[in-house]
Amino acid sequence: xxxxxxxxxxxxxxxxxxxxxxxxxxxxxxxxxxxxxxxxxxxxxxxxxxxxxxxxxxxxxxxxxxxxxxxxxxxxxxxxxxxxxxxxxxxxxxxxxxxxxxxxxxxxxxxxxxxxxxxxxxxxxxxxxxxxxxxxxxxxxx
Length: 142
What we know:
two-stranded antiparallel sheet, globular, 5-stranded antiparallel beta sheet, about 140 residues
């Protein structure tokens, strides 16, 4: 593995809540998908049956999560809250989010309020995985 990589950040898209209606072919529905940009990388799923309809956007502030991972914690009981993050003007959180110790890793579930759209939220979860041969987050300066 190229040691210029830090490791693997898993991003799980769990569900959408009260998303804007954009699909004219279906009544009162949408065919949403997520585009993820991180640095110069882009990951997305293409809408194959109709044109793309913008349904909002949100940013994830990784700094509080990375700070928790950098603490180097281990042997905590599952479900232990490591840090709580409050919604503010620098993030898209719809409500408080916690970094939780789960099965040997820290996870953070967030409800992100979508911007530039009339309504909608997306529930996501992030989890960091160290990968053999990669630098990891311990030396990353925030």
